[in-house]
Every structure is written in C-alpha cells, then in structure tokens.
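Annotators were shown the component list below and the corresponding predicted structure, then asked to write short factual statements about the assembly.
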Amino acid sequence: MFYRLSGTYHTSYEADRKLWKIPTDRWLVVAVLLLALLAPLYVSPLYLGSYVLPWVIWSAAALSLTLLMGLAGQLHFGFAAVMAIGAYASIHLVRFGVPFELALLLSGLIAAVIGAVFGGAALRVKGLYLVMATLAMQYLVDWVVVNVPAISGGAHATLRTPAVSFLFMPVESLAARYWLALGWAVLLTVFFMNVKRTSFGRALVAIRDKDFAAAVIGVDPFKTKLMAFFTSSFMGGVTGAILAFCFYRAVTPEQFGFNVSIQLVAMVLVGGLGSVIGSWLGAGFVLLAPIFLTNLVSGLAAAGWVPVSQNFLSHLPLMIYGAMIIGFLLLEPLGLAKIYDNIRKYFLVWPFRHARS
Amino acid sequence: MAYFLELLISGALTGLMYSLVALGFVLIYKSAGVPNLAQGALVMTAGYAVWLVMAWGLNVWIAIPIAAAIMFGFGLVVERLLLRRMVGQPVIMVVMLTLGLEILLRGLVPGVLGSTPKPIDLGIDFAPIIIGDVFINRTSLYGGIVALLLVGASLLFFRTRLGTKLRAVSDDHVSSWAVGISVERAIGISWGLAGIAAVVAGALWGSSQGVDWTLSTLLFPAVAVVILGGVDSVPGVVVGGILVGVLGTVIPGYLDSVAGGSTRDVVTSLIILLTIMVRPFGIFGREDIERI
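Structure shown to annotators:
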C-alpha cells in the first residue's frame, strides 16, 4: 500500500523534527484541508450549517481547553463561561464601533484576563478543588451575564450579532462564516502542534507531570500555570466570539451554561487529553453521535420497530451522551486519538503485523 | 426582625436538608477518596425509587426501607461496575466518570419513568408551624431533624466494627489490605450507604418539591456544603450545611429584590471560591499532605 515508512529515511535532525514525518501523512493533511476548504461547494447548506460548522467551531474550543487540561494538566469545568465572556465582549465591542478583527482580539484578551484572574485565585489548589473553583466561576459568570442588563440585554433576552466583515469580506453568507471559523480552527491547530515543541509547551508538560519537580528544574509553577490559563482563555474567548458571530448569531446566556462546560470536557476526554487529532475527533463525536443515534432510534420508532415513548426519545440524547462518557473512560481512557493511532500503526506495517515496533 | 428570624430558621433547616445530600458525598469520599459528583442524580434516582415502590400501593413507611434496599444494591453495583476499574486513575477520570453517571441517570430515569414531577406524600401537614411571627415549614423542620439524626447515626456507625474498617480504609488502602480488611468491600459498602442517604434525601426533597430531574441540581449546594465543612468530615456536613443554608437564604432574602434574582447561586459559588482560597480543606477537613 501507499501508507508506510519504507523508503523514508530521516537523515537530518530537521527531517526527524518535522510535524508530519511520513509523506503520506503530509498528503493526507493536504487532502483533508482541501476537502474542508471546499466543503461549501459539495456539502448541502443544511448539513454545512448545522453539522460541519458547529463541528469546526467546537473543535477550536476543544483545542483551547485541551491546552489547559491536556498539556498543563489544570482541570477547568467552567470553560463555557470563558467563551461566554468572549462572545458577549465581541458583540458589545462591535456595537461600540470597534472593527471586527480588532474586536475578536480584544474579546480574547478580556476573556484571557478574567480567566487568568479566576485561574490565579485557584492556583493554590489542584485536582478536585480546582474543579470546584472553576465550577464556581461558571456559576458566577453566568449570573453576572444574566443579571447585568448592560451585558445580556436583560434576563431571557437574546442579543443579535451585528453585521460585520472580516478583512473586507462580509461575514454574512454561510460559506463566509464557515471559512472564517475554519480559518480560526486551522490557526489554533497549527499553533497547538507547534506549541508542544516550544519551551513554553515543554514547561506546561513539566508542570502537568509534577509541579514540584518542575519547580526544581527551574520552571516557575505559578507563572506557567497562569500563562496556561491566560493562553487557553484567550483562545477560548476568541472561539466564543467566533461561535457567536458565525454560528449562533443571536446569543442567550443558556448557550454558555454549565452543561456546555461539561460537554467541552467530554469532548477533550473522549478525543484524548492533549491531542490535536483527538480534539477534532472528540468534538465531532460528542456533538454528532447523540444526534445521529437519536435520529436513528426515532426513525425506528416512527417505523414501529422499537416501542419507545416520546418522553424516552426526548431523553435519549442525554442517555447516549452519558453512556458515551462512561464507555470511553472505562474502555479507552486515551480516547479517540488512541484508536486513530492504533489504526494508523496497523496500516503502517500492513500486512506484516509482526513487524510492528 | 421577624423576617430575619424566619429567613434564619428556614435557611438553617434547608441547609440541614442540603447536608442530607452532602452526607452521601462525604461517606464515599471518606472511604474511597472518590469525589462523587453523581450524588445529586443518586438522590433523584432514590426519589423515583420511593415513588415507584409507593406506586405499587405500599405505605410510605414500608416503601422507604424497600427503596433504601434497592439503592443500597444500586450503590454496590455502581461501585463494582464503574468505580472499581478507576482505581489508581487520575482524579479527572473519576470526576468525569461520576459526571457521566450523573448525565446518564438524569436521562435514563426520567426517560423511563416519566419526566412530570411525581408527588411523594409523607403525611406531613403542609400548614406551617407558627411561633410568634415566624412561620416554619414542617417538611423542612422534619427534614432538618432527620438530617441531624442521620448524621448522628453515621457518627455512631463509624465507631462500630464495620465503621472502624471504613475509617481504616480511608486512612490508607495498602495498610488496610495488609491487616486483612477487604478494601473493595468497604468501598462498596460506602457506596451502598451513600445510596441509603440518598433515599432519605430523595424522599424529603421529593415531598417538598416533587420528584423530577431538578432534584439532581441539589449537587451544587451539596458540593458547597462539602467544601466548606471539609470533604472528609461527617460533622462538617452539619456545620457546613447550616452555614450554606443560612447564607444562601438570608442574603438572597435581602438582595434578590435589588440585584435581580437567583443570588443564591452566587452566594453558593462565593462560598466555594472563598473556602478554596482561604482554607481549601474546609473547616473540619484533614489537610492533604502531598508526597513528592
């Protein structure tokens, strides 16, 4: 087959340090990128708008969170609140007359500062207590957003996003919104793959593995953790703004509730902690699997093949979602990234399985 | 003044009812070291179990022990099937597993048994007790008393032979194995006991607000109670419960009209945040000493 290491020799350190060492991997990335770029041409608007676009945006969100949870090992159960800050900040900035490009950056900065303040407050603790502290952040931000009319436009109000253009391209048509979201997600992906190879990324990993040990070798735990919260919240804030402008277009506080935070953590875990491909696969899986399975069962129920009540059907996505989290944690704790890796390794040496390294 | 007193008393009683939920959390954390974020859903399931047994036409006082037996078994099963495979995994895995269980139960139980609120009639008079100008809700009063009794019972339980084993397990798993205590069984029993505590909480909360999925949202105040009182302290549940209940009732009682509603969640969040910043292990909790 085409997919193998045979004939690929890395004769220099540069060649061995490449992001994609195997030519086939490189071509695969190019092919997937082309497919994604051309998606508006061959995917029907219904599927593009309600499946592919949210997948791309949630992948960006999962990437932002996995920088914090996977690389730096800091648990965050209030990430939807960070995205809410970004979303609301960007809308208000644009309404205030700030150009959209600048508003995206500023909303990311605002989310980063607030996220880092909360993170800094919780930095004395780790594990369970960090979970609880970030949970409290989620509820606090939720409350502020709902109860300050200047932010949300009053409780139960929806805030429409104003019409904007990005680099002179109006973010109005579905394709334009999709390309903007895709561009951001690809940017995050490239950043994430490279940050793992910088001193900052290595410091994060050192902190994750053991913060005392990292301190001994000269990595300042407080500074690094704070930087991790800052970077991750910046990415999350911009993703929240992208989510508001490209997907929801009318924002309510419920779109950034506690359940969304859980969903994000589920995406990161189902995909595999700290993995790039895992973030994409996990976001798609957590987002789409309950929808498809529920459609399947309700189709079967409509055909009269399985006797289930309407009430059962309406609770089915929740069941599938919960069962999915439990199933992955028990059966494949390393997530979809590990499954992908297994398959890839299988094909690398196929059909000589005994040659597997 | 009467308004303040009423808020104070109803807050303290509500807080004691929170501590019923929190007790299950502490029982499991104390023996297994597992933060059980599914305790809210466990309370909801227990409420449904009580309702289900009562729907067979049984008296409520017979139904509650049967439901307790069911939930004890359920706790054992959860521990055996899910949590035992998580031994030695990082805390994020365990937290997410219990959250997954919570989501699953929140979908499965109302999905199968119906999502309209189910009544549980404990035979408690709905008319409040009136002392002077102060109205006291009877359900909360009995709930508070039951909570105190249950916490007292668990304190006594930790002095029995089985309870001593559980305390040993909470101290150190390996040493407990070495002296011949079955750690697995002890942790299983603690899950079963948490199931029983959930039945009491589910019956009382269910009688005051009906049994539906909203019972699982009790998790959040219960978490605040546990963090404030100390995550491995049974008496801490009472003190933390009363504090969370009083602060979460008195402050919204005055602020809700000014700040626009649901300040209770804010107070609860602030309690969690401040506790974690000032004294992460809570009022009565044991400070973790981490080995490098």
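Statements collected:
1. The mean pLDDT of chain A is 87.
2. Chain A touches chain B through 48 residues (CB under 8 Å).
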